[in-house]
Amino acid sequence: MSLRSSSGSPVTGKPVGGTADQRLVPRKRKGFLGPQPLGLLFSAPYVIYVLAVLAFPLGYAVYISFHDFFFTAPRVKVDRPFVGFDNYITVLSDPAVQRSFLNIGVFLIINVPLTVGLSLLLANALNRVTRLKTFFRLSYYVPYVTASVAVVGVWLFLFQQNGLVNTLLGPLAPGPSWLVNSWLAMPTVALYVTWKQLGFFILLYLAALQNIPDELYESASVDGGNKWVQFWNITVPGVRPASVLVTLLATITGANLFTEPYLLTGGGGPDGASASPVFIMYQRGLLQGNPDVAAALGVVLVIGVLLIALIQKRLVGGKED
Amino acid sequence: MSVTNAQNAKNDDDAGQQPELPEPVLRPDSGVEKRRNLGVGSFILLALGAFVFLFPFYYMLIGSLQTAPDTSIFGAFPNPANITGANYVQINESINLFRGLLNSGIFTGGVILFTVIFGLLVGYALAQMQFRGRGVVFGMMLLVQMIPFQLLLIPLYVMIVRDYGLADSYLGMILPFAINSTAVFVFRQYFLQLPSTLFEAARIDGASELRILWQIAIPLVRPAIVTAVLLTFIGPWNEFLWPFLVTKEQSIQPLAVSLANFISNIAGQAGNPFGAILAGACVLAAPAVALFIFFQRQFISTNIGSSVKG
């Protein structure tokens, strides 16, 4: 924006006449970098950082994924031949990778709707209540600010074979316990992540709810609409942009999953039932020394997330786009 | 923008229609009653939620103090006969809590330092300086927040660990997080709220940009610094994956990593592994929870401001 306006003013000055043009020449030369060229210097460390530590690796990841790449000692020059889509073929035909994508699918199907539903419900309730509001807000937000590693300890304790959850369930406790059961491992991880992240999404919804005018609710209650009618017809459409954001963020966080299944289920879980794609990247890339395959998996994963995000935006965002 | 304007206009219409309905006085009364009922329902829901969110933390503390892990329902209540501090001693013998906290502190402190120094500079430039390329820098800041970390994992590992040999070093841990773009965004938003005439006047008086930033701008945005520090803090303090990949030596591992390694490797050998794990968990969780409760206003406003607008 500023770029256009700073270079645009001399251009719009041109048609006025030759004298104006001549007057502009010294200003133009001085203002080539704008009135405060020092801004470039102030921005430089950040720009260099972003280019070197974030933008360059992004391109490097794609480069690695198309070459026969392996770890070497520092400053050793080796040949890294171009191999086309070989690494991608290796990735897509790997049963462990396929399993990890299935796992993440299970995770997202449970985690995303639960996150959207529960955070909207709790934010809506929080918006109505006056007593203890700060306390409630705090309590929802505490899991979000706490290290996953710390809270995982308690969840392991709660969900172990003879843990408190199974004690309370009594005869209803699942056969192999939650985290060692190949059917329940991923759903339990999904439940954990929902619980851990919910506070953040509640805050997003709380902010969005402030934009819905009270008059809408008042006129609805005058017309005799009960609270569910109000919720579905006023609240849900009113926070639709926030719902799109929450869905996308929950999906992106889910695709990045590593710490939670790694610690809760001891790596990949029973029969790889809770191995996440990032865990497979770690395994193939760093433990087995195939960074090229791992990089290809990363690219596939990101493309997959982008596709899912586009579909979600269509579904949740409605026809307004 | 146009969509929201249209919506606002529609809302105004609705509001405008309302006074045209002079309903009996009874109606608003029943509305109030409905609201009160709704309040009770919401309150129960919220209380239930608060229990679900807080109970694991309470249980973490109780469990860390138990001599023998008690997983029965009675184990959820303090029992004077079963209380001990031995778990803290035990975890400290296995992973040296102080060293872990120190490493977490250096890692987090480094990220905060880089973020505050360079973030203030670029945030101020983006908000109050006009220069060629400002739009590009701003766009870059927004785009960067969308880069998925899993894509950077392998190339960053190759560069930082293999090419630069920064494994088992604080710099290697800090680099990928060094300048938090969300914090940069927060700085820009705060600087933007200051009147630009203030800075123009200072420039006419001949003050240098650095002096303007240091003596005028920064003192006016102290809350922004608190907010950005808190926001930045929870990232590296809680981060597991990256420091886990770049550190092999326990003497340099942040507490989150050494505790996680204890959970996945050594837990089987400890006398009361859950007691020890939970004791470590309490030590790791305490600083973040304490900071959060102490500064909760900033935490809450931060996330609303940065994420909704971003």
Note the topology.
The complex is a heterodimer of chains A (321) and B (310).
Chain A: H1 2-13, H2 18-30, H3 38-65, H4 86-92, H5 95-128, H6 133-145, H7 148-159, H8 164-169, H9 185-209, H10 214-222, H11 227-238, H12 240-255, H13 259-264, H14 277-287, H15 291-317
Helix pairs in contact in A: 3-15, 4-15, 5-9, 5-12, 6-9, 9-12, 12-15, 14-15
Chain B: H1 2-17, H2 26-64, H3 86-95, H4 97-128, H5 134-144, H6 149-163, H7 170-174, H8 181-193, H9 196-204, H10 209-220, H11 222-238, H12 241-246, H13 255-266, H14 273-294, H15 296-309
Helix pairs in contact in B: 2-14, 3-4, 3-14, 4-8, 4-11, 8-11, 8-15, 11-15, 13-14
Written description of the protein model:
The complex is a heterodimer of chains A (321) and B (310). Mean pLDDT of chain A is 84; it is low at 1-29. Chain A starts with a helix and ends with a helix. Chain A is mostly helical. Chain A has helices spanning 2-13, 18-30, 38-65, 86-92, 95-128, 133-145, 148-159, 164-169, 185-209, 214-222, 227-238, 240-255, 259-264, 277-287, 291-317. Chain A is globular and about 75 Å long. Chain B is an all-alpha fold and 310 residues long. Chain B has two domains: 25-84; 87-309, MetI-like (MetI-like fold). In chain B, helix 11 crosses helix 15 (296-309). The relative contact order of chain B is 0.12. The model of chain B is unreliable at 1-36 and 302-310 (pLDDT under 50). The interface between A and B is large, with 120 and 110 residues.
Query: How many whole angstroms does the radius of gyration of chain B measure?
Result: 26 Å
Computed over alpha carbons, the radius of gyration of chain A is: 27 Å
The largest inter-chain interface, given as chain pair and residues per side, is: A-B, 120 and 110 residues
Q: Per the principal axes of the C-alpha atoms, what is the gross shape of chain B?
A: globular
Low-confidence stretches of chain A: 1-29
H/E element order of chain B: HHHHHHHHHHHHHHH
Question: What pattern of helices and strands is seen along the backbone of chain A?
Answer: HHHHHHHHHHHHHHH
